[in-house]
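new request in #modeling-help
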Amino acid sequence: MFYIHNTVCISPQISFPDTDLDQLIICKDNKLYAKEVSYTDIPPAILRRMGKAVRLGVAASNPLFKLYDKLDGIIIGTSNGGMEDCIKFLNQIMHYEEGVLTPTNFVQSTPNAIASQLGFLSKNKGYNITHVHRGFAFENALLDAAMLLVSYPDNNYLLGGLDEISTYNFNIDYLCGYVKKETISNDDLYSGTTDGSIAGEGVAMFMVNNNSDGAVSKFRALQMLHTTDEKKLLTAFKTFLSNNLPQNETIDLFLSGENGDARYTKFYESAESILNKDTAAARFKHMSGEFRTASAFALWISNYIIKNQHIPPHMLKNAVKIKDINNIVIYNNYQGFQHSFMLLSKN
Amino acid sequence: MIKVFVTGLGIITSLGDSLESNREALKAGRCGIGKLYNFSTKYSESLLFGEIKLSNNHLKDFLNVKDLGVSRTSLLALHAFNQATADAGLTDKDFSSEDTALILANTVGGMCLTDELYQDSNQHDIGSENISSYDCGSVGVFLQARFGIAGIVNTINTACSSSANAVMYGCRLIKQGYAKKVIIGGTDSLAKFTINGFNSLHILSPGLCAPFDNNRNGLNLGEGAAFLVLEAEQDIADKKIYAEVKGYANANDAFHPSTLSENGDGPFLAMEEALKNAALNPSDIDFINTHGTGTENNDEVESKAMIRIFSNNLPAFASTKSNVGHTLGASGAVEAVYCILNLMHQEIYPSLNFKEPMADPGLIPNLLYHKKTIKNVMSNSFGFGGNCSSLIFSKV
């Protein structure tokens, strides 16, 4: 589909500007907050108005803008965008009984505020879009980029996925039963037998194009599936692999979106059941937490693993040792009904 | 290159709950904007709204919705979805085909339940029935589950240009083989949240909006939903065809979060690229359904951008926001349906409330209903964040 070049990820782990993923940062209160970074690149007057999601999105994109003279568009997947601002504006409406309100929170609360700030700050007048379809927000951004690069093969696009933990997200997700009732440590995420996961947030930005020169990896295939039936999931996973992975190639690493929610383990077990014994299996949500665009973190860390030919030991689920990491298959699902498969290969 | 045709239409606005009622109202120059009826806000008396005068309970009964927590945004969408898919003759078999995609656009989602959201997001006890219906994705999740849609499902939010981008995304899915049929829809309902948001920006008119008028003083918020069924040329067989989606483009103004740049680079680029995408010249456009919100900034900038594209040969143009208000995430789809009415019936509808041209550039919208030969229609949608998109529909 396309090649991935430079990337930036701001996550709860040590991922930017330095990267040390072997060390696992431990979370409190079932919330894995992204580590804020230095925002020296953003004018202070603009920074002050930015909510966290916008701030993180801009901080992750600025280093990439500097690397490319020609940028043809900005494609963002975010389920909720800047929800902290949304709730702030909502609280203003209630507290001031719809009186005289300041528009900043309203303007920053719209999910397209991130892509539009990026367009504004990089003076980019090209394609600019925000996909917001819950657990498929980032997947649709990926598909959008892939389609654009078929129509405009010489273009460069900034592709990203992000969401933030806000009062809104957390309380709503908690009330929906997406977050565990008991407090757990993220290094113990997969051993529980209860419902719910831990909340997470983060941003991953990718420069993508059709040029293999200097690229780290090749994004080869994407599939989305709606189902609540693990048998259908298994059939779809088999079809995905037979359609996209030539017979003389193997999956070196299976990256699973397991999130410690006992209700959804069956899907991951089902997909894993068809892997052969030479495939390593690893997990990432103890690093990122669960959020609707967590698959962007999964793609980022897969790219990192390919680039460094190294899997942080705490990610590994089995003891399979692999020499060369060429092909990574990512399987993620959101709340057991929005499933996605991705295939990423070493360039 | 695969051509993409429109084979089904569905619409509900303050002008009516069907294609025919909307057309009759447009022909007669009727306005659906008035006092708020369905819920109360501090601005119920002082502002006017393009509200659909059907209560949620009425819509639920009529649409046979028994599930809890279905927002008004989703109910309006369901109504237009039902019409459009029946119009195109889509069956359960089509819905469950992996070749049928559903692309939604909205900006409000379930936030029309502003008070309920406030309760749910500020507590840690028991959630209301609406707990999973607040986000923009909730509409698409609801329709996907209700009809078992098996193809690609997406929701786009680029503010007021959202559903224009949904049409564009849908066409691209068909052209690149990711779908054979795409159901696209824009929907938004009136909400205390958006009323207060737009009010805080001082761009709501206390009276009826007057697009392109010298004394215009803001927009009226509206609500509605419009759906279109898009199909690939080779799969249509002998179905009726409303129009071809001839061209589209998305560009960014890269200027300011809530105002357009003086020369309208974003609007200019959206129109220019859409023409290029359609392989048409400016002189091929017979009519423009403008974004035309009635705000000081939009109408002036849009006028300038249109002059940059069309110079002295500006085609007839109008703003249907003077009929239904600004339906935000639905507006691109609502106006796409109106453009198709223009093409189908070879007629154009009057822009309302215009009295006096602006000093500069002084453009005059179409003010009378009349028959007109129309081959290609352009529809503009510009949103906050500089998100500008233009679509071109052509007679088949």
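bot summary: The longest helix of chain A spans residues 52-67.
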